[in-house]
Structures are given as structure tokens and as C-alpha cells.
Design a protein that fits this description.
alpha+beta; three-stranded antiparallel sheet; 15% strand; membrane; transmembrane; transmembrane helix
Length: 450
Amino acid sequence: MSNDYNSSSFKKLLDKLQQESWQLELLISGFAIFGLFQVMNPLKEELMKAIGNDDFIYRFFIQTVYPALSILLVVLLVHVILRGVWIGALGLRYVSNEIDYDELQYSKKFTDHLTKKVGSFDRYISRLENICSTLFAIAFLMIFYFMAYMLIIGFYILVSNLVELTDIFSSEQQVIFNVYWAFFYFSFALLIFIDFIGMGILKKGNLRPKIYYPVYRFFSIITLSFLYRPLVYNFLDQKRTKWLATFILPAYLLISFLLSSFSKQHSNYLTTTGDSSAIYANKGNYEDVIDNSEDLIDFATIPSKIITTSYLPLKIPFTTFKENAVFEKDSTLKPNKDERGYGFNGKSMSIPGLTLSIGNNKDVEQQKKYLNVVNNMYEVLIDSTIVEKEFIYTTNSNGRLQFETFLDISTIGKGKHLLHIVGPAGDNELFKKKIKIDTLVTIPFWHYKD
């Protein structure tokens, strides 16, 4: 069969598929809902890993994908429910046909009102059909909206990183470039957003389109708009659906923002958030109660609130700030080229069945020097007594780098104790980043020997 969209045979095929599309809608919605329920928890776990690993790019990707999939899940659930109502209405029509208002024997006032407002049963079925088809299309259009947002931010990050990799600017010049690049780029992105909210307001008139057209073309390319542009304009040329297609995303963001601040307060004085202290134990400091899918690990962790051994394992997760503090303390360790972040590693490459490593081992002496700085950088106290420690580095079950040591607590008494860690902390003064020495965490625990 010819797939020429102007041919009569192709139009007949589309009309036939349109009439039977509800079956495909239900089939796709069912599989999509099942898959989305399966993937939401793993995404949460990946988000916690990204936050814990200080991985900004991966974190941004997950934080963009997660709400997009949440919207898709909610809209598809509503679609399935309404499509079920539609099927039920069709079945009822087969049994009882139209609504007979005379049979109800209501007064003329109510009969006239219901005839006007409710109307015929066929009109109800038709409206349900339109709503279901619109919801099904809008669900996937939301995915493209979030994809466009992610690509806009991603392009900015890509250009910034590429310019930084070329080493054509000094560190100070790179900061200046990033500021100007961000200003111009997001100023143009703001025009795209204004045009989106205004339903094409910058495409109207005589002068505005001439100025806006190059910006529109540029962002059309980087957002891959050719994939979903026909969907957008098909919504915008209808009075009822254009409002839905334009404002469903801002409405979702506004509702999410408002709901994020809504919670139940259990007490006027006691809270369930905050850092551990002498009177509060944050579960992010205790490994036995941390839920990897929902909880963020705090600055440091110990195995449990109750310690029954003569030693206390202490783990401090690695962060970029801690390494910057090492460089601040010993500038000889600062490399000429910062290798942190994403990039191609030519020292280790692999294909199925073959792995090639070329001098991938780091200098052990430099690692020892690095760890020596870490050990001198942090002071560990139990109650008010300084405790000897020697950090090594390792990885946890999620592959995150961390510093680990074991503290001798054989001489401390039974009962409650406070573990203090003192070291460098960030201190932002306007745009100047300073490092100050402060108590970074206080963790209460109870010691009872076996």
C-alpha cells in the first residue's frame, strides 16, 4: 500500500487506525505503566548514588528523567481510568441506548437543565474519546518537553567543558568566559521560554519574527524538535487543547514546588531533619539504618548507635571539596591538569573479550602523601579526648570512594559518648570561597562491651 500521505488509500488507512487506536492506546499504556513502576525505585537509588558521589552531570540527568517519567506515569494512569470509563459507557449504550429524560419524570426545570448540561449519551462518549486521545498524546509530548530542557542545559555544559579542555584560557579567564557564555546563552533560552508560554507570540508580527528566527532555528536543532514539532502545533491550533499543551508543564512544576514544602509537623520543638548532635541522631550517620534508595549519607558514618566491640569503624565519604582542601593544605599535590570529571581515559580501553591497560596505576608514594595530608587535616575526638586514627581509602557497596579508619575505644566507659570530627569546612563569602576549621559532625553512640 502506498504511504503517500496525499493518497486516498493512505487517508482511509489513517481513518481506520484512528477508529481502532483505543486498543493500541490501552496496550501501550499497560506496558508503559508496568515498566514505569519497575524503574522508579532503581532511579531513586541511582539519584542517591549520584548525589553521594558528587556527580553533577549524572545527578542532573536523573533529576530530569525522574519527574518526566512521573508525569508520564500519572497521565497514563488517568488515561487508563478514563478509557475504562469510556469502554463501560459503550457497553452501557449497547444495553440502554440513549438517556430518556422523560422516563425520569423530573420537573420541567430540572429536565431542561439536564438536557442542556448533560445532553445526549453519545455526546458524553464522544467527549470521553477526545479526552482520552488527547491525554495519551500529551503524556508523550511531556517527555519531549523534558528532553528539550535537558538538551538545552546539556549543550551549555558541553560547550563550557570543551572550552575548558582546550586550555586556551587561564582559570580566571575561564570563569569570565563562563559568566558571559551563561548570560548570552540563557538570555536566548529565555526568549524560547517566552515564546513557548505565549503560544508563539514571538512568531507573530513583522519585526519580532525576523529577530527571533535565528534563535528559534538554533534551539530547534539542539533540542531535536523535528521529532515532536508536529504534535506541538497540532495542539496549538485548537482552542481547547492549546492551553493544556502549554501550561501542563508549568502547572506541574508549580504544584511540585508547593507540595515540596507541605509536610506534617509532629512537634513544636522536635524535628526529624538536621545534623546529628548531642541530642539528635540523624540516621544518615548510622550504616545499619541507612536506606540506600532514599537516604543521603552524612559527612561520616559509624556502623550503629550501639557499639559492642572494642573498636569503632569510622568512614568519611570522598567529595570534591575534600580533595580541594587537600590541595589547599599542600599545593605540591595539585596537578597541572585536573583529571576529575568526565573524559576519555586512553590508559584503559576495552572491547568484548579484550581489555588494554597502559600504565594506569597511580604513584603509590603520591597516594601515601595524599593520605598523610588527609590524616593531618581531620581531628577525631570522643567526648573531649583526641583519638589516634589512620585513614586509608576504599570504596563502599555503591562504588563510592571513602576514607576509612578504626578507632580504639577499649578504654572508654559504658553508656553514651559523642564522636566529633574537626576539619576544613566551606565558607562562602559573596563569591569568594574560603576554608575554615570547624566541627564538621557530632555523632552520638552508646558503648556496651560484649
